[in-house]
């Protein structure tokens, strides 16, 4: 994002460099996740739970990351996050709900796991296809019973500069915060991910639990979540606070609305050389366009 235009154009060069000078690749040592409902049906394709596109290799998903709490350099996040301790971990769910509750990690891992093969489109102009494991956020929200005043959902990442060393710098306002409208949060495509490629989430991808909202730019998919609050009005979001003219609350993937400093019409799929067209709502329009009926998506970018 800072220097993102440069980062976007550097992505291909960086990958070419890595092909010629491969760094030592450490396979993340996650725990195997069993009892996962696989996205292998025609229905999964129809409802967007799976795309029939080549999966991005694990090596790229775990070595090309945006996670500013650890490093602003994509290639350094994995080593900076190595050894990040995720137990004990809890997520409090509070605010405008009838049954506020704190879930510990084992409670969260009890939600039936589903595989979701989603495109991830970063606002910087690169993309991946990731086989997430997780469960619909709606299942968790239904348990706490949002009241009729709840209109938005606010999310927060862990704040602990001892464990997330880059939080000692002022590169962003900490903790990282994000938000969704309640109907977006309840949409079946919106998940809390606890794993990828059939194992628990690597630290660099947001261990132990992160949000994934596939039709929005990647920065909405907040990592290492510790707090979820149901609120009445639009909550503050980190990149919008940082640069309000560049990153809006909605941040739906939209090839027709350029970032002030670069076009969003195309993207580079990590592992490919040629650019490809960016799809409206990242290709999930059939599932989500109705959420924005009548809205001016240029104004609500
Ligand atoms: N969440 C937190 N807490 N901190 C971050 O820096 N980066 C975001 C998002 N979630 C970020 C975050 C951005 S810009 C992107 S593109 C995705 O995470 C990247 O996810 P990945 O590294 O798993 O591909």
Structural summary, described in words:
With 301 residues, the protein is of the alpha+beta class. The protein has one domain: Oxidoreductase, molybdopterin-binding domain (Sulfite Oxidase, Chain A, domain 2, Alpha-Beta Complex), CATH 3.90.420.10. The protein has helices at 4-20, 42-46, 58-61, 77-81, 105-109, 137-144, 182-185, 238-242, 285-288; strands spanning 36-37, 90-95, 101-104, 113-121, 126-136, 152-157, 177-181, 191-196, 199-200, 210-212, 225-231, 266-269, 276-277. Strands 1, 4, 5, 8, 9, 10, 12 and 13 form an eight-stranded mixed β-sheet that branches. A five-stranded mixed β-sheet has the order 3-2-11-6-7. The chain is globular and about 50 Å long. The relative contact order is 0.18. The mean pLDDT is 94. It binds ligand MTE.
Protein topology:
Layout lengths: L3 H17 L15 E2 L4 H5 L11 H4 L15 H5 L8 E6 L5 E4 H5 L3 E9 L4 E11 H8 L7 E6 L19 E5 H4 L5 E6 L2 E2 L9 E3 L12 E7 L6 H5 L23 E4 L6 E2 L7 H4 L13
Parallel strand pairs: 1-4, 2-11, 5-12
Antiparallel strand pairs: 2-3, 4-5, 5-8, 6-7, 6-11, 8-9, 8-10, 12-13
Bound molecules: ligand MTE.
Short structural summary:
The chain has a single domain (2-291), classed as Oxidoreductase, molybdopterin-binding domain (Sulfite Oxidase, Chain A, domain 2, Alpha-Beta Complex). 19% of the residues lie in helices and 22% in strands. It has nine helices and 13 strands.
Characteristic terms for this protein:
single chain, 301 residues, alpha+beta, Sulfite Oxidase, Chain A, domain 2, eight-stranded mixed β-sheet, five-stranded mixed β-sheet, 9 helices, 22% strand, globular, binds ligand MTE
């Amino acid at each position: 994002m800072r220097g993102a235009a440069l980062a976007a154009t550097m992505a291909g060069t960086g990958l070419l460099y890595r092909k010629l000078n491969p760094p030592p690749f450490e396979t993340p040592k996650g725990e195997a996740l069993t009892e996962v409902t696989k996205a292998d049906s025609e229905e999964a394709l129809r409802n967007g739970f799976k795309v029939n596109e080549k999966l991005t290799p694990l090596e790229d998903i775990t070595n090309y990351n945006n996670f500013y709490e650890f490093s602003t350099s994509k290639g350094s996040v994995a080593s900076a996050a190595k050894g990040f301790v995720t137990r004990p971990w809890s997520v409090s769910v509070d605010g405008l709900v009838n049954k506020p509750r704190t879930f510990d990690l084992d409670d969260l891992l009890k939600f039936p796991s589903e595989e979701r093969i989603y495109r991830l489109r970063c606002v910087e102009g690169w993309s991946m296809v990731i086989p997430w494991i997780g469960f619909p956020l709606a299942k968790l929200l239904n348990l706490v019973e949002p009241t009729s005043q709840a209109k938005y959902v606010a999310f927060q990442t862990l704040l602990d500069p001892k464990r997330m060393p880059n939080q000692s710098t002022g590169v962003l306002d900490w903790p990282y915060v994000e938000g969704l409208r309640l109907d977006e949060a309840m949409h079946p495509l919106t998940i809390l991910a606890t794993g990828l490629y059939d194992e628990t989430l690597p630290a660099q991808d947001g261990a132990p639990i992160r949000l994934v909202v596939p039709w929005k730019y990647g920065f909405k998919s907040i990592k290492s979540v510790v707090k979820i609050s149901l609120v009445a009005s639009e909550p503050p979001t980190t990149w919008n606070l940082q640069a309000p003219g560049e990153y809006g609350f909605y941040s739906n993937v939209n090839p027709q609305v350029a970032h002030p400093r670069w076009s969003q019409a195309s993207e580079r799929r990590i592992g490919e050389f040629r650019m490809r067209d960016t799809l409206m709502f990242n290709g999930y329009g059939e599932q989500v366009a109705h959420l924005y009926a009548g809205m001016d998506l240029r104004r609500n970018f």
